[in-house]
Design goal:
Order of helices and strands: HHEHHEEHEE
Shape: globular
Number of strands: 5
């Protein structure tokens, strides 16, 4: 069976990436790395009002990227899937490589033996697929 861009697997991946693709939500994910925070603590980090931050938290929670637990009167949010942030060093590299013009052929990030992402450079051939520089 051929996969299409409309398959469920792609739709779920796109939903997760869309959830991350907002400056406030991405910042929330980075702030939650390694520690749980209440909605009030998170809202205090941004100029947005608490209602807006709560909507961002609800969207992230709906994807499963973050989770929450109740302790007394407080609800603590935590990063449920910290590995989603592993893509950020690769994105930063793409943005800085060659003045933001993208990576040269063969430079990429690949999982190492521990399944964490590590940016590596592939040795350059003088002639890659008939294309010379």
């Amino acid at each position: 069976m051929k996969k299409t861009c409309k398959s469920e697997g792609y739709k779920k991946k796109v939903a997760l990436l869309k959830a991350m693709a907002h400056p406030v939500r991405l910042a929330i994910l980075e702030k939650l790395y390694g520690r749980a925070m209440t909605a009030c603590e998170i809202a205090g980090l941004f100029e947005s009002d608490r209602t807006t931050v709560s909507k961002h938290l609800a969207l992230l929670k709906s994807t499963g990227i973050i989770g929450c637990r109740k302790e007394g009167r407080h609800i603590y949010y935590f990063l449920n899937v910290p590995c989603v942030l592993d893509i950020l060093p690769c994105i930063e590299r793409v943005l800085t490589e060659r003045g933001g013009q993208g990576l040269e052929a063969g430079n990429c990030c690949r999982p190492d033996k521990t399944n964490s992402m590590e940016c590596v450079e592939k040795p350059q051939n003088k002639n890659q697929g008939g294309i010379s520089s």
